[in-house]
């Protein structure tokens, strides 16, 4: 049938149910945004495209439904870079629409021109440029399908002079593939290893959440009485109240999980690429079981065996593989050492729960005294761990939470647990600052009836603070945001205390700035809290205001300047002066 290129584009979006777009309006996209209202597509015009991309990531991660990122060509699109790479490592299927400078002027260095395909080539699972107006629906359909198949962002690049053209086309068909369920030989080999194991441990990753595999992994764990650990920043990949749940591995994770996986003779790594940062030593403990046989399950064969020695690799959907493995287990699977294993799980969980509940302060490394000095400087202020315990007292069990990158959010890694998946939005292994606020906004857009709470340190929050100017408008949903306020870039400051003799370069923030005050200036509610009781009460009130009165609240949790474990003990060491540096060598420019 005859239609315009923009009509074909929007009709294809409708075929795939893509009803939300995030970005900033621009002339290069106006022919399609003009149709959004008629099509049932909501355009969320944020304050910065980078935050808009993270809203899209939060929306899709919380709902499982695809959304779209779109903005003006050139600088509007370049602002999406960090968000797209974040979504890539979060395995989030997103549609990245990049309107391009017009074909008739491209290459001349014209207004808002940049090589948009090159920009994203290692940040998306698939990308394609429209070569002819008549192919616009075909290309868009393929890009969306590729994003779904790879569970990652995919990009369509559209020269802006292809809009407002009349074409004669048939809309393309949606051809979806069944996800692989693993090869028969690999499944048999893995089932044999698990059946004969004396201390099997299951490690759930993001793939378990994405595949809806939590019940299947729980059934397998219960059959084996195997403890279940989760990967770093994937606390929602197994029910927190389950007796076999051991907690998260990685930075500031669960000592119980680390102690248990250290004993494993077989590890089933289910739906995880086993990225190297997630299994770094924690609490001074080398816990990865070097002699264990590892079964790695991942949809992407390129990830299997990439970071760890693997005995059996299975290319498949986590739910299908877990279900098949359960069916293939021997009648005696899990019997060897079952009673001792169950006792070890209960003992380690109890020990860690007691230890975690009594952890009020951060330790100093030998030869450093920063945390001791921080406590002495503000003896009446909350420590980060006190703040997290106060938060846990008020956080609704069904809440979706987001976390930013940084010291105080990372200290909280061991605290939250969940009853179901798609509840924990962390920035992932790209590690962008400024993720906590926009991602929780996206989650609330997708799940308006669920309480949401975002978390950020004050350094990271400063990157996204501009979104406070956007979300007070009546069409935006109410959220709750907690900012840990200690006036410093904590992770980098801890590096400075350990390796650079307290030479704090660029780590100090402006003590004259009040984020609660900024929130009030934007027409939102802003509250400062200085004690655990005040923080718990403020969060209770904020949740009530969010859910019952449609009000957004920003809570500034005033905490002391204690600093947790450094992120990168594996990558840093104390420098040694050799040639020496002197101010006298600085040349004065003319």
Write the topology of this structure.
Elements lengths: L1 E3 H11 L4 E4 L6 H10 L2 E4 L3 H15 L4 E3 L4 H4 L2 H9 L5 E6 L15 H4 L6 E4 L6 H15 L3 E6 L6 E3 L15 H13 L3 E5 L1 H5 L3 H11 L3 E3 L14 E4 L6 H7 L4 E5 L22 E6 L13 E4 L2 H11 L9 H20 L12 H8 L6 H11 L5 E4 L3 H5 L12 E2 L10 H11 L5 E6 H7 L15 E6 L4 H10 L15 H7 L3 E5 L2 H18 L3 E6 L32
CATH topology of the largest domain: Rossmann fold
Average pLDDT score: 95
Sheet/helix structural class: alpha/beta
CATH architectural label of the largest domain:
3-Layer(aba) Sandwich
> Would you identify the CATH H-level superfamily of the largest domain?
Thiamin diphosphate (ThDP)-binding fold, Pyr/PP domains
Radius of gyration: 25 Å
Strand content: 15-25%
Q: Span between N and C termini?
A: 68 Å
Domain tally = 3
CATH class identity of the largest domain: Alpha Beta
Note the overall shape: globular
Percent range for helical residues? 25-40%
Largest β-sheet summary:
6 strands, parallel
């Amino acid at each position: 049938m005859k239609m315009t290129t923009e009509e074909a584009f929007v009709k294809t979006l409708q075929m795939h149910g893509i009803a939300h777009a995030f970005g900033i309006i621009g002339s290069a996209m106006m022919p399609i945004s003009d149709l959004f209202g008629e099509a049932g597509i909501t355009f969320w015009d944020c304050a910065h495209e980078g935050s808009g991309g993270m809203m899209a990531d939060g929306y899709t991660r919380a709902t499982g439904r695809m959304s779209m990122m779109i903005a003006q060509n050139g600088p509007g699109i370049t602002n999406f870079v960090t968000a797209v790479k974040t979504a890539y490592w979060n395995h989030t299927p997103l549609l990245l629409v990049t309107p391009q400078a017009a074909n008739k002027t491209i290459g001349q260095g014209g207004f808002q021109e940049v090589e948009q395909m090159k920009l994203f080539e290692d940040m998306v699972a698939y990308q394609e440029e429209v070569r002819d107006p008549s192919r616009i629906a075909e290309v868009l359909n393929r890009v969306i399908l590729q994003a779904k198949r790879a569970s990652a962002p995919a990009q369509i690049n559209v020269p802006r002079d292809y809009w407002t053209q009349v074409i004669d086309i048939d809309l393309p068909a949606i051809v979806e593939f069944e996800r692989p369920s693993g090869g028969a030989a690999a499944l048999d080999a893995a089932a044999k290893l698990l059946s004969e194991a004396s201390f099997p441990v299951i490690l759930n990753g993001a793939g378990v959440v994405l595949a809806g595999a939590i019940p299947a992994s729980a059934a397998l764990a219960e059959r084996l009485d195997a403890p279940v650990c989760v990967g770093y920043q994937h606390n929602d990949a197994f029910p927190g109240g389950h007796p076999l749940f051991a907690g998260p591995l990685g930075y500031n994770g669960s000592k119980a999980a680390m102690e248990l996986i250290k004993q494993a003779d077989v590890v089933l790594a289910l739906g995880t690429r086993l990225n190297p940062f997630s299994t770094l030593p924690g609490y001074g403990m080398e816990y990865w079981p070097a002699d264990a046989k590892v079964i790695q399950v991942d949809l992407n064969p390129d990830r299997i065996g990439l970071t760890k020695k693997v005995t059996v690799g299975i290319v498949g959907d986590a739910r299908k593989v877990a279900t098949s493995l359960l069916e293939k287990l021997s009648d005696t699977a899990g019997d060897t050492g079952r009673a001792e294993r169950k006792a070890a799980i209960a003992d380690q969980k109890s020990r860690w729960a007691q230890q975690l509940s009594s952890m009020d302060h951060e330790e100093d490394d030998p030869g450093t005294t920063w945390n001791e000095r921080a406590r002495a400087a503000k003896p009446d202020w909350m420590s980060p761990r006190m703040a997290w315990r106060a938060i846990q007292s008020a956080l609704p069990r069904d809440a979706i939470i987001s976390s930013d990158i940084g010291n105080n959010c990372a200290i909280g890694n061991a605290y939250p647990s969940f009853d179901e998946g798609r509840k924990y939005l962390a920035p992932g292994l790209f590690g962008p600052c400024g993720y906590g606020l926009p991602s929780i906004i996206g989650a609330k857009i997708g799940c308006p009836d669920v309480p949401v709470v975002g978390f950020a340190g004050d350094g990271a929050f400063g990157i996204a603070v501009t979104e406070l100017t956007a979300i007070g408008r009546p069409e935006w949903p109410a959220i709750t945001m907690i900012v840990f306020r200690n006036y410093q870039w904590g992770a980098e400051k801890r590096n400075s205390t350990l390796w650079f003799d307290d030479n704090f370069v660029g780590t100090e923030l402006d003590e004259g700035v009040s984020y609660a005050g900024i929130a009030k200036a934007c027409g939102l509610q802003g509250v400062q809290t200085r004690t655990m009781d005040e923080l718990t009460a403020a969060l209770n009130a904020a949740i009530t205001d969010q859910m019952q009165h449609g009000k957004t609240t920003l809570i500034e949790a005033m905490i002391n300047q204690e600093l947790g474990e450094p992120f990168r003990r594996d990558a840093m060491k104390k420098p040694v002066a050799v040639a020496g540096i002197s101010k006298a060598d600085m040349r004065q420019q003319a």
